[in-house]
Amino acid sequence: MTGAQQHRPHREAGNLPRIPVRPSRFVLAALVVFIAIAGAAVFECIAGHFGAFDGTVAALVVAALLGVAASRWRRRQPAAIALHADGLTVWGRAGGARYFSIIGCAQWGGRLLALTLSSGKNRPRTLLVAADAVDSDTFRQLAVRARRAASAYL
Q1: CB-CB contact of 82 with 99 (8 Å)
Q2: Pfam families in the record, alphabetically (predicted)?
């Protein structure tokens, strides 16, 4: 029975402390600025060819669609995480937990950490963790563990 001897970190997640993930003001500001720039770009393109009214309508439609997409993305962000040596457990807003191994990471200064996560079954997914979404000690630990796990995966 080798299956009973396998290391299953997602089974041990109940013993690990859940670290709450707050909505990031930094990422929210970046989303708002992106939507505004995209709307202005669409306005400039359409207004030059078809007039200001059509440009305004197109810009508002694009801004609304991007706003809906940003809202859906924010709702899919985890409510809490737990750190492991080579991965993390992610709790969704509904309360379901899933274990992911870290297969890649990128860090932009001390502000943003992009993790590439794999569950082994599905395609890899990306999780953005801003420094203001978790406390500073957790962000530092997550960055160190992510670099170690990503280098071990390669």
Answers
A1: no
A2: Cpta_toxin (PF07254)
What pLDDT digit, counting tens, does each position of 21-30 carry?
Answer: 999 999 999 9
Provide the b/e sequence for 36-72 (b: ≥16 CB within 10 Å): eeebeebbeebbeeeeeeebeebbeebbeebeeebee
> Where exactly are the structural domains of the chain?
26-75, 79-153
- What pLDDT, in 10s, does the model give residues 68-127? 999 999 998 999 999 887 788 999 888 888 999 888 888 888 889 999 998 888 889 999
Contacts of 127 (CB under 8 A, 6+ apart): 78, 90, 100, 114, 115, 117
DSSP 133: T
Strands (E) across the chain are located at 19-20, 80-83, 87-91, 97-108, 112-118, 125-130
**What CATH number labels 79-153?**
2.30.29.30
What pLDDT is recorded for position 86? 74
Give the list of residues 6+ apart from residue 103 with CB closer than 8 angstroms, or none.
Answer: 116, 117, 118, 124, 149, 150, 153
pLDDT at 2 over 80: no
